[in-house]
Specification:
Blueprint (H helix, E strand, L loop, with lengths): L6 E6 L3 H16 L3 E3 L7 E6 L4 H17 L3 E5 L5 H7 L5 E2 L5 H11 L29 E5 L1 E2 L10 H5 L3 E2 L2 H13 L4 E5 L14 E4 L2 E4 L2 H8 L5 E4 L12 H4 L2 E2 L2 E2 L4 E3 L7 H7 L5 H14 L4 E8 L6 H14 L3 E6 L17 H24 L5 E10 L2 E6 L10 E3 L12 E9 L4 E5 L7
Parallel strand pairs: 1-2, 1-3, 3-4, 4-5, 6-9, 9-12, 15-16, 16-17, 20-22
Antiparallel strand pairs: 7-8, 10-11, 13-14, 18-19, 18-21, 19-20, 21-22
Helix pairs in contact: 11-12
């Protein structure tokens, strides 16, 4: 019998929710004695966790599968694109197995078939568990982690096919989520990034069932979850928050502190998608734009430091020039801090494909450029207003003389950074909090120096 453990290569594509799926599969593989390797040559089999949300993601996933087949030959496919097995088989008939998102059992069964776990009579009698930590494999740096609170979505936005891939909303019990968060913090995590398809809807499927954590009852509800997470003394950042009215209930937590730490980071990631009531109706999204602007003003009155990030779609089928101008006017009025935008692209299976009056690609791209130019002016001005202030930051990396950090306004990978010019000389390390005096800014990032002699532990 070989003394070496069986080896699995892993390719993870897509959004943070897919990243969490990858972490869970990798954790189970490690628990069963498989080694995770970084090259095709070293792997006995390769697992590809795919994305299938938009056409470019489908292309990337199919290319990744093809590369793994060419370099290794034994490939197991899972993830969102796995919900379209016929499309995968048409392009790559030699894949060993195909399963959809969150189908961890099917992935493990496929691995077992092609690569049985090594039998060890001494340890096979023991429960399978991770020995080096109790929260499993993480694909993020040690100091931050994604905390997935639910699967699926109950909305039927006309441009989106997520429900057909990930199903309806299924919320995790609140005590289970809080226990996982507690373990992550014990393991060194300083920032929790709460993710789902619809964070605002958390618990609606279980009628906000009450569970107990640390001898205290908590409802399976967004506000109660945030209150529990605020007890852990780390940054908690909310993503994918649908603009329900009860979002207002969590804003006061953003203005409060606990042991010097904000109870809830003053940061909201809310995909508004558009500002024309008619276009929003076609998207099957909330359309009361004037109320949205009023709410933003109320949020800023309660939590003046709040950062609002959003995403928008331009060039939606039937969008007129006047409706696009409404969107630009909304940007001017809302003064959002961070904004991403996409030119509408038909997604196979989306209801929006059936809408009349699709726009020429040239028009969509021209509007996207105008949109981003307008937002760049707003972002530049809002960052410039921070020059001269002191910002609490979390260090992500050391790069030469610089420390690359993020303020409370910056989520990893999608927002800007704070470049600390004297970071190396100050002895900063990844995972440390530090106060930074902001000396300059540009369209995306801030630049500064350590405001005090020592980092904040």
């Amino acid at each position: 019998m070989s003394l070496q453990n069986p080896k699995v290569g892993f390719v993870s594509l897509g959004c943070p929710k897919a990243l969490v799926d990858s972490e869970r599969i990798l954790t189970q593989l490690k628990a069963e004695g498989y080694d995770i390797v970084q090259s095709y040559d070293a792997a006995d089999v390769v697992v590809v966790n795919t994305c299938g949300f938009i056409d470019s993601a489908v292309t990337e996933s199919l290319d990744a599968i093809g590369e793994a087949l060419a370099e290794n030959g034994k490939v197991i496919v899972t993830g969102c694109l796995g919900k379209r097995p016929e499309q995968i088989r048409a392009a790559h008939p030699d894949v060993l197995s195909i399963s959809g998102p969150q189908d961890y059992a099917s992935v493990m069964n496929a691995v077992h078939r092609v690569l049985p776990p090594k039998h060890d009579p001494f340890i096979d009698l023991m429960p399978r568990r991770m020995l080096d930590d109790d929260f499993g494999v993480k694909l993020t740096p040690k100091h931050y982690a994604y905390l997935k609170i639910s699967e699926g979505c109950n909305h039927r936005c006309s441009f989106c096919i997520i429900p057909s891939m990930r199903g309806d909303l299924v919320s995790r019990p609140v005590d289970e989520v809080l226990r996982e968060a507690e373990k992550l913090v014990r393991g060194g995590v300083r920032e929790l990034l709460v993710i789902s398809q619809d964070t605002s809807a958390y618990g609606v499927d279980v009628k906000y069932a009450e569970r107990v954590w640390r001898d205290k009852p908590y409802q399976t509800r967004m506000k109660a979850l945030c209150e529990g997470l605020s007890e852990l003394g780390v940054w908690t950042r909310l993503h994918y928050v649908y603009p329900y009215p009860h979002v207002d209930d969590i804003i006061p937590l953003m203005a409060q502190t606990h042991n010097g730490m904000p109870k809830l980071l003053p940061y909201l990631d809310i995909p508004f998608q558009h500002a024309s009531p008619r276009v929003l109706k076609l998207m099957k999204r909330p359309g009361a734009v004037h109320k949205t602007l009023e709410r933003i003003q109320r949020w800023r009155a309660i939590a003046p430091d709040i950062t609002i990030r959003s995403t928008f779609i331009v060039g939606f089928p039937g969008e007129t020039e006047a409706e696009f101008e409404e969107l630009l006017e909304f940007l001017d009025e809302a003064q959002l801090d961070r904004v991403g935008a996409f030119a509408y692209s038909p997604v196979d299976g989306a209801k929006a494909n059936e809408l009349p009056d699709p726009l020429p690609e040239a028009v969509k791209q021209e509007r996207l450029a105008r949109f981003m130019e307008r937002q760049a002016e707003i972002s530049t001005a809002r960052l410039e207003a921070k020059v001269g202030s002191v910002q609490r930051c979390l260090v992500d990396a050391i790069d030469g003389e610089l420390a690359i950090a993020r303020s409370m306004a910056d989520a990893p990978e999608i927002d800007g950074v704070v470049q600390i010019q004297d970071g190396r000389d100050a002895g900063l390390k990844p995972g440390e909090f530090v106060d930074v005096e902001i000396m300059g800014s540009d369209e995306h990032d801030l630049y500064g120096e350590v405001a005090y002699a020592t980092a904040i532990n």
